[in-house]
Amino acid sequence: MIRVLLVDDQPLLRIGFRALLDLEDDIEVVAEAADGEEGLALAKEHLPDVALIDIQMPVIDGIEATRLIAADPNLARVHVVILTNYGFDEYVLNALRVGAAGFLVKDIVPEDLLHAVRVAARGDALLAPSITRKLINRYVSQPLRTGTDTGLKRLTTREREAVAMVARGLSNDQIADRMVISPLTAKTHINRAMTKLHARDRAQLVVLAYESGLVTP
Predict the structure, then answer these.
(1) Which residues of the chain register pLDDT less than 70?
(2) How many CB atoms lie within 10 A of CB 159?
(3) How far is residue 114 from each of residues 4, 22, 53, 106, 215, measured CA to CA in Å?
């Protein structure tokens, strides 16, 4: 059962999302919060698999709530998905930097919401190729953080290859095909890279790959 926490200051959105999610046999909404502070407290209490968090809220906003969740080792199992009205922007990028697994636009169709919750629960990033392209464009116009210790030197050659492919939006199966290894081995390379780089998920690997220069536009 996938346990979901809803954090949004719009009651109607929470009601709609809960009604949709609770219809599924494998998904359960365990709690709701109207601001980031309450959401953080409920995350600690319920330890959900996925937290759907609005990016703009009173008291504590979605970016700070995400950062606090990502920084708490007791909440390592919680995968944060940011909710936004506007699509990919600087706020979303900052949320990815501090630990969000991805983001959803609030007018998402029901099928895509359900798919997103299941993807996030598996620990995969919600970064469609179109979003990866926007991340690339973000770094075309800005200099890379040269000289920054990103931890890439600690990666093996195969781990670096896998991270580069993650940054280009490839799935585990696609990475396995290109590296001529099994999907399980590909996942192992990625998981080890995340551990060495202190990345919570694939989304942070994408950001790190571009910021470090491992992958260039």
Answers:
(1) 88, 125-150, 217
(2) 21
(3) 11, 10, 15, 13, 31
